[in-house]
Amino acid sequence: xxxxxxxxxxxxxxxxxxxxxxxxxxxxxxxxxxxxxxxxxxxxxxxxxxxxxxxxxxxxxxxxxxxxxxxxxxxxxxxxxxxxxxxxxxxxxxxxxxxxxxxxxxxxxxxxxxxxxxxxxxxxxxxxxxxxxxxxxxxxxxxxxxxxxxxxxxxxxxxxxxxxxxxxxxxxxxxxxxxxxxxxxxxxxxxxxxxxxxxxxxxxxxxxxxxxxxxxxxxxxxxxxxxxxxxxxxxxxxxxxxxxxxxxxxxxxxxxxxxxxxxxxxxxxxxxxxxxxxxxxxxxxxxxxxxxxxxxxxxxxxxxxxxxxxxxxxxxxxxxxxxxxxxxxxxxxxxxxxxxxxxxxxxxxxxxxxxxxxxxxxxxxxxxxxxxxxxxxxxxxxxxxxxxxxxxxxxxxxxxxxxxxxxxxxxxxxxxxxxxxxxxxxxxxxxxxxxxxxxxxxxxxxxxxxx
Length: 451
Description:
451 residues, Rossmann fold, Trna Endonuclease, Chain: A, domain 1, 5-stranded parallel beta sheet, 45% helix
């Protein structure tokens, strides 16, 4: 039994469809419906049995009559399998459990009594990350029975593979920020040689993949949570820089008190429930620090909320030029901040093997209360010392200068524990020979971290 989770559009369903269609064994693939009652879910699964290209061997005998419940369905399943190797995929499993909170327990009993001893692969699939994570916890019926598997979007290195050397490294990161690595969007971008070319074409049509994917994601995830969706859109609407509590409250409008309450109530669902928002604090600070910043975790959703969502109505009425103008006006500055979480992950990965980054175990940013001092990359060691201070200058033509490295060096006197920190310059154009950085990482180095 596998419990497969991943964000919407990451390719879970397509991946498993490829599996069942090529495995050359009987299979059942069924997708649950949101808000459908349990009996309707069972009836749909029974109907889906008959759509398989390779149906279960004893299907007609086992399901000559309509199953009346999940318990009835799972009791008949061994008869339908007839001892033959088979695959059973239950997609959108969280929606099925919403309709019947006994489903997990019923499946556990069926698994323990019969299914576990049969040559069958049972795959439970869901985009509700928090629910799918809880599915295999020790206090849940399926604990110790299902192996976990996470399907992620394509990494920057995998996006690079998709373009087969046709796009230079910095441009590949632009494409990653715009597509989030979602296979459908990467496929749509492949005919183009750059992110601007792809985005401008997609913004011409409010029904293009770039335009509608985000809308479909939010419609599925926040159908019954309008306030949480409004807070998410307020966080994602930041033009350049970072969202804070006060900036999010201001974007919601209305009375500050009621808007503040709305943000406070929505954050647990966005951070812990849907896992679409991350709360960042300065490296070394307590997680309860008031110096909090809110960040959209998914690169594509962050891009969509900034450049697509505000202009869907404009695109629909033939004013795509407004969307395009907004993108062309500030994408270069917006990506300078949007790339930072990607850089943090890359540096963290490189630290495992690059001696120049030795001692670094946690990577993030650092800022003070007034935002007068802010450093893009701060690498902390286990003993709370800071052996690495870095600056991200996302430029393709102008290398990092000695003046910029000197400004970075001032952080040694500001960031706690950084008195002897090595200086890191991250820039697609590299750094001047006299810049004075101890470590220089270009875009291709960052790609290497994900290979």
